[in-house]
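hiii so my PI (J.) wants the whole complex modelled not just the main chain, which honestly fair. so below is everything: two entries, each one labled with what it is. i double checked the lines twice but i was tired so who knows lol
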Amino acid sequence: MSDSAVDRAPSGSAGTDAIRRLSGAPIAVEIRGASKRYPNGLRALEPLDLQVREGEFATLVGPSGCGKSTLLRMVAGLLAPSTGGITLWPADAVVPDQRLKGNARAPQRLAFVFQSATLMPWASVEHNVRLPLDLARIPERDAVQRVAAALALVGLDEFPESLPRELSGGMQMRVSIARALVTEPRLLLLDEPFGALDEITRNRLDRDVRDLWAQRSLTVLFVTHSIYEAVFLSTRIIVMSARPGRIAGEMTIDEPHPRTDEFRTSDRFVHWCAQLSQLLVTSAGAAA
Amino acid sequence: MIRNWPRLLAPTGVGLGFLLLWETLVHAFNVPFYIVPSPLLVMHTLVQDAPLLFGSLLVTLRITALALLLSVTVGVLVAFLFVQSRVIEMSLFPYAVLLQVTPIVAIAPLIIIWVKDPLASLVICATIVAIFPVISNTTLGLRSVDPGLLDLFRLYGAGRWQTLARLRVPSALPYFFAGLRVASGLALIGAVVAEFVAGTGGTASGLAYQILLSGLQLNIPRLFAALLLITLAGVALFLLVSLIAHLTLRRWHESELRPED
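here's the output for the full assembly
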């Protein structure tokens, strides 16, 4: 890396091709003027537009209260927008709310990983991961195979009988990820999934998510506080600002995939982080 | 195990010391047995009157068990109903409270008059006493669900029944058992009180009836022996329910985990 890299954004790398390919991909999430205002008058989110294309790793970054989790919950259909609308795969027109009412035409194509592992404390790892399949009444034999595959994917195939409390925080989070993957979703929503974990575990799980995204050609919408996490994983970062929540800026991380640990310690990585940090500061200043 | 010794020995020691003091005082002051019988006399009476007293114990236990069964069945069904809709809960919960605060002694005579079958009337009285903790604890438990898990169930399109069976019921188990522990004692108390009120109008064979009759006949040793049986039955019932709770929850719930786990 040359010293001049400090003064301008890194550019012109093998990553550019991948970005160009993504821009032609079909849209996975289309948000049109969606806003959220709570009954007590709190404006959680100003009307905003956002498109996420298939195969993207899009990350929402911003301070607490900027509405990034609210936005993610609206995409999942757990929360209805006050105005505007959200369509998943507009080409097939799947509206999140319809899907929740058990619309038979819309298969299970999205999965959500919460801030905490959110496991059933009374059920074994295997039964926790099987839950989405059981709820969809997938036949037992098929379900058992898919659970085994999902557990192997997150490296927990040796612990199917364990109870959640017998596992470490990082392992519990892996169970949560296995449960999200067991339905073979096309869209994965992650809401600050590793915020409560130590740095080393967090980095390891970040690498896992990176691999899963690449291997399974997932579309990922990721929410995080961490600048480093965002830069390491994302193809695109959407910066949000608080009070009221809105999109303050966007940056494309034009770096090749798969990203390695060398990238994490490179000057380019530091530079991306500095740039993102700057964007966060200016957007916070503009809001104040 | 050795660390548990004081937990067993200490209360046993206190009990034995108390009985020894009692025995000594009764003899020292020449208290007549129809005022306060000595512990040894009570034991002797218990053995002597065993066929009569244990027969009565079975009658009382039968009422208690039926009342507990009815409380659990009806109480859990009512709790299921309550969590289906806030309107139903708001409409009916005050009446559940009313049932709880009305003294059973006051309404037992009415029930005994209205219900022809003496056993059924006593079971109903005991159920009225025991059902409230089952309803309130189970309702609380069915509502105390991890909101994240509730979101997860919604996300995967779980129906009302799937959510109830797979999420609400397991979450409610610790609360249910806490309620059941209270209810088991109350069912026994309810059975005894109802027998007392019913007097000769009841089944005329339960332990309360024996206590009533012994009091009238100034057969105080037998009264004490009957009292002892009721107390022991209550403790045994409590231990049984605690054991069932322990076996059900020991693997995952905080309340049944040992600190070193």
